Amino acid sequence: MTMIKKIKFLPMNLSCSFEGAKSILEVALNNNIALNHSCGGMGSCTTCRVKVTKGLEKLKPPNEIEQEHIQAREFAKNERLSCQTDAVDGVEVEIPEATE
Ligand code: FES
């Protein structure tokens, strides 16, 4: 039996289920949520930055690409790049206003 995993997106308050290994950005786009991704998920634009409002401790630590942006752009502790962060069940994120 496969466990149904879900993450929730704010401010629309939408719970989205996903299977397997997906980035938070992929889960959003698969569910028609307009999460910015100017560079197409390559980790270079930072428009996909989200605020983690629940479950921050469940996420894997930032990879090298994300680390660089976190330092250069002074991310808050709960801010992550959604294209570089694996979706984990029970996490809740707030997405920025659409710019595309
Ligand atoms: S989509 Fe460009 S950094 Fe994530």
Descriptive report:
16% of the residues lie in helices and 24% in strands. By secondary structure, the chain is of the alpha+beta class. It has a single domain (5-94), classed as Beta-grasp domain (Ubiquitin-like (UB roll), Roll). Strands 2-1-5-3-4 form a 5-stranded mixed β-sheet, covered by helices on one side. A hairpin with a 3-residue loop joins strand 1 and strand 2 (14-18). It binds FE2/S2 (inorganic) cluster. FE2/S2 (inorganic) cluster is lined by residues 37-39, 41-48, 81, 83.
Write the layout of secondary structure elements.
Blueprint: E1 5-10, E2 14-18, H1 24-30, E3 49-54, H2 64-72, E4 79-81, E5 91-94
The structure holds FE2/S2 (inorganic) cluster.
SS elements, strand count: 5
- What is the 3D form? globular
CATH homologous superfamily annotation: Beta-grasp domain
Number of domains: 1
How are strands sequenced across the largest beta sheet? Answer: 2-1-5-3-4
Which percent range fits the helix content?
A: 10-25%
- Any idea what the CATH architecture is? Roll
Mean pLDDT: 95
Could you tell me how far the N terminus lies from the C terminus, measured between alpha carbons in angstroms?
Answer: 38 Å
User: Biggest β-sheet: count, sense, barrel?
Assistant: 5 strands, mixed
What fold name goes in the CATH topology slot?
Ubiquitin-like (UB roll)
CATH level 1 class label: Alpha Beta
User: Rg, please?
Assistant: 12 Å
Order of helices and strands: EEHEHEE
What's the helix count?
2
Structural class: alpha+beta
Strand content: 15-25%
Quaternary state of the chains: single chain
Name the poorly predicted regions: none
Ligands:
FE2/S2 (inorganic) cluster
